[in-house]
Structures are given as structure tokens and as C-alpha cells.
Amino acid sequence: MRHLGWFVGMILGTGLSINALAEGHGGDESVASLDKSMLVAIKEALVAGAQATESKVINTSWLDTKGQLHESTMVQSAMRVRGIQVRAYLDEMQKPKVEIALDQKEGLLPECFAKDDHLSRTVRVMPARVRGHFVTEMRPIAVASTDLLRREFASYFDNSDYWYAKRPVRHASAYQSMVSGLRPNPVRYELQVMVSNGLTPVGQKPERIPGSDPVSTFFRGEPSAFAEGWIQLKAQLVKVTTGELVWSGASNIRVPVRPVTYTNQVLPDEMINQIRDDARSWASLLDDYAMCQPMNFQINELDGLARIDGGTTSGLKQGDRLLVIDQARIPDRVLEPGTLAELSLVQVVQVEEDSAIIEHTAGAPVIEATGKVALPF
To answer: What is the C-alpha separation between 198 and 208, in angstroms, rounded?
Structure first.
């Protein structure tokens, strides 16, 4: 099954903050009531979306070791939810408005649902990988190309409003981690750069090496120049927690004829310009992804407190509200009895660099949130 992203974004269409609403409707009690009505509206929108798509009912039955008959009914819909957005807290009828966005294809950047994401994605540019065998004179060019592309991505992430870049860390074995206490600095995404041999485009005539014609070769010998070649640069963005391939880009780059040198080869200007152009184009796509694509945080329990794996580096702050869902059931089993009863709203009460503590405000108990994720809005 395709991996599904989720997003809960919130636009205050009425121009009111939740604190202002609380002051106008009786403080904490009114806020709790608003949370409950918001949760109900989200459930109704999910059901409406599921009912509008093709559904099927799967009945199963089995006998246990004691001979007792068990039956199970699973209702699956063709709905693929990409996101949920609370567009306004209250309308004229004092009811939250909820919209859902459907469909997402793995490995492709989604069409924007709402460019109001104030959160940052933590990311690390990983060491480059060289794939395949390169002839001696091409390998330095291949390595220099990956170094340039990595620097371009690192600069982009450092200056982006949507990403929070973290530096590479020294890897340690499990034993070394236990003895030294060294722990990798966690990130949500990793950007991997790879280089391999490229393919000459069909119909492309190779650049002629000056002095390589038979007459010149006869009188002057072989020219002191490296022949034209091709490399392929590839970049991939991977979500660390799931291993999901979020985005991938590849570029076939021509390595022009260049003089033979026994020192470090300098990248030709033609290659530098193309790599930088590719990096700018890919950065624009990653901007679109970060502005639009949903984020979710894993929930775990520690010392009796519910925690999520996102904190100040992700843009979370105290008071943020999140929707807790079961990703395995919500996408295509919304109509199944009991599924929506497991939804809940929580609030961030304490924030650290890469984690936060949450508390329940409405819906199912958070303590039973094993296998669920929290979606900020």
C-alpha cells in the first residue's frame, strides 16, 4: 500500500485566535468545548469523503482453539487522504469547517493544499555516494561534482524558511554509543547525493578533440586532452522514520573535452553552471514540498508522559494543538465501526529541541495511542 502523508493545517478564517475565542466564550471550558466540536467536524469530513468514494466490505470468520466462532467486518474505501485542514474555527452556525485533500502518489511532490505551514523539517545532507566504476581521469570530476551539489543543497537548507539543517554526525556502533554516550543528532529527513556514469544522449555527437584528426596525429602525435564524457548526478530526499522516498531528481551532465593535467582537475565552468541550475530547480521543488506537505510526529510514552519526536527545531511551540490518528486505519477504513472513535486532540505543554510533551484535550485517551501519530495544526 502506498505510504500516505497527512496534514492538518489551520487558517483562522474568522481572524480569531483560540485564546480570543476562549475569552469570549467562558475560558477553559469553552476551549474544551471547541476542541470537541472541532474533532466532531473532522470525523464528519472524513466520513463524507469516504462515502463519496467506492467502498467494499470484507467479512471474515474463524474458530479459535476452544471451538468458538469469531467474526470480523472490515469496510475499505478507495479514499486516499493527503490532508485535513480546519479552514475556520467557527462559522455563522458556530461549527468548525473542515476540508480534506485526497490522493498522493509516492515519490512525487504533492499539489499544494495550503501554504500556511509554519513548521520546519529537520534535514541532514549526507556524505555523497559514488556508484559504479569510473576511468581514472573521470573519477576526480565525479567526486568534485557531488561535492559542489552537496554544498549547494547545504547552502539552500541553511537559508530556507522551511527547513532546519543539521550538520553530519560521526557514526558510532551500538557498543560505542553505549560506552561513550554518543547519540546521533536526530533528523526527520536525509538528503542523499549520488553520482554514476551517465549515458550519451541519443543522436549526440561527441565533441571533437582538437588535433585528433589523422593528419595532425601523424605529425604531432596524440593530443594531450581528455575525451568528452557523461556523468549522472542524482539527489534523493528520504523520510528517516519510514524510509519513504519523498523526492528524487536526476541530471545527465556532459563532461567536456579538457586538457590533460596531473594535478587536481577543476570542474569546467559549463558543468558548474549546470549543477547550480539543477540545484536551484530542485530547491524550488523542495520549497513547494515543505510549504505544502503534511508533517506528523511519532508518539511514545516515557515516565508516564506522552512525548512526540518533534520540538523547537521543527517549529513547535507550547500551546500548539495536534490531531492524534492511526495512520493504518484512517486512510481507507474510515467507515469501519470504532475507527473514528480513536481520534483525539492533544496540546503541546512543554517543548525541547527535538521532542515535546503533549496532553489530552478531547477524544480518545492519549495513553492508548500506540502506533499513532500526531499532526500539528
So the answer is: 19
How far apart (Å, rounded) are the C-alpha atoms in residues 366 and 358? 9
Q: Which of 138-152, 170-184, 248-262 is the most confident on average?
A: 138-152
- What are phi and psi for residue 299, nearest 5 degrees? -110, 135
Alpha-carbon distance of 296 to 3, in angstroms, equals: 13
Q: Which residues pair with 72 in a beta bridge?
A: 60
3-class DSSP assignment, residue 9: strand
Average pLDDT over residues 312-339: 71
CB atoms within 10 A of CB 60: 9
Under 8 Å between Cβ of 211 and 197:
no
Q: In the chain, what are the helix, strand and coil shares in percent, each to the nearest 5? A: 25, 30, 45
Domains and CATH numbers, the chain: 8-117+293-376 (no CATH), 121-291 (3.40.50)
Cell of 135: 576511468
- Say which DSSP state 312 is in: G
